[in-house]
Amino acid sequence: MTLAEAPARAAASARETVLTNARLVLADEVIAGSVVIRDGRIAEIDPGRTRAGEDLEGDLLAPGLIELHTDNLERHCQPRPGVDWPREAAVIAHDAELASTGIATVFDAIRVGSVASFEKAAYGKYAREATDAINALKRQGALRISHLLHLRAEICSETLVEELAEFTPQDEVRIVSLMDHTPGFRQFRDIAQLKKYHMGKHGRTQAEFDEYMQFLGELSLRVSTPHETEAVAAARAWGATLASHDDTDVAHVEASARHGARIAEFPTTLEAARACRDHGIAVMMGAPNLLRGGSHSGNVAAADLAAEGLLDILSSDYVPASLLMAAVKLGEMTGDIARGFATVTRAPAQATGLTDRGEIAPGLRADLVRVRTAHAAPVVRGLWVEGRRV
Fold first, then answer.
1. Domains along the chain?
2. Quick one: how far is CA 17 from the chain centroid?
């Protein structure tokens, strides 16, 4: 090597990382081996060989997790009722929390559609300003992981149409989900469960609960059809993946299929999940549901869908750490660790058209997570996003 070649060779070496002595979670199997990262991409996979590099001590090395639906940002934006936290600070904290749980790509599920006129249960707009904060921090290079946009279109609301109008194709909305929380339907078809939720979480009296239910019922009659039409049209205009939410019966799924939905978020019954499979719609369930052994709303258990072969994707929903925990648990339940991790890596990537990540394969992004499973809960010991350790 000449003196002239030395700087180039050193620069190339600096761009290369070797992770060795790992259990590699591939698409359909787990093997011992090493991964070579070069220029942010997976360059080589060496099965059954030990190379010089960072020794992962036999830990799992899996694709970085992909989260399609998390409400976690809202919790950071409003850590207490009536307390609004600065948006950029909220995004930074949210980003750090997700990175600590092994998530390399998140679709931030941001609500569009608010209620202002019912004073006792008003909730305001925040989608546009939250999106602006995320975009600003991305431009500044301040975020650890990859953030993509998921708009949760609240059908039973007052401001959905005007909030959708604040977004354009330049915002690169990747998912639009149709959420209808009308009392007596979908997630809360069981009014007793809805009452328990509202009176427990919000401290409402019986009279306040009854008044709110009447308000929502009347609002739904006025706006549900036009709001659903507008949300579906927006998704098509932006080229976003459409997702249904809380499908309960075959009719719901058939309507979702007519709209062009590719993902069913949290179907509430076995009947609906089976109908999704018939229509080629990927079924996503909550990781907390799988870990707890059932739905907090009294709906179908994720484990039951897994047993029927109907569980395609897991989402952390409201507990970021649950995504990795559920992937490991599903792998243990089925005796197939690769299958468990596929629900939080390959399957969500395929459902949303992310062809550059979701597997450990040459040429894909080096989004990787190192996981140790010898503890009460899986422990993240390293996360790489496009080859950069974060």
1. 64-182+218-354 (3.20.20.140)
2. 28
pLDDT in tens, 311-349: 999 999 999 999 999 999 999 999 999 999 999 999 999
CA dist 298 → 143, 215, 385 (Å): 37, 24, 37
Give the span between the Cα atoms of 68 and 112, in whole angstroms. Answer: 16
Answer whether 115's CB lies under 8 Å from 158's CB: yes
Token code pair at residue 314: 């897991």
Cα Rg of the chain, angstroms: 22
**How far is CA 264 from each of CA 121, 269, 361, rounded to the nearest angstrom?**
28, 12, 28
Residue carrying structure tokens 């597997």: 359
40: left (phi over 0), alpha (psi -120 to 50) or beta: left
Helix (H) or strand (E) holding 244: strand 241-245
The CA distance from 217 to 297, in Å, is: 19
Instruction: Give which of 145, 77, 100, 148 is closest to 319, Cα–Cα.
Output: 100
> Running DSSP on this structure, what letter comes out for residue 46?
E
CB distance 167 to 234 below 8 Å: yes
Amino acid at 302: A
Q: Which residue has the tokens 């090597």?
A: 1
Residue burial 256-266, b: 16+ Cβ < 10 Å; e: rest: bbebebbbbbb
Cα 301 off chain centre by? 19
Q: How many CB atoms lie within 10 A of CB 19?
A: 23
> What pLDDT digit, counting tens, does each position of 173-203 carry?
999 999 986 665 555 565 666 656 555 555 6
pTM beyond 0.85: the answer is: yes
Residue 348 CA, distance from chain mean position? 8
- The pairing of strands 282-286 and 313-315 is parallel
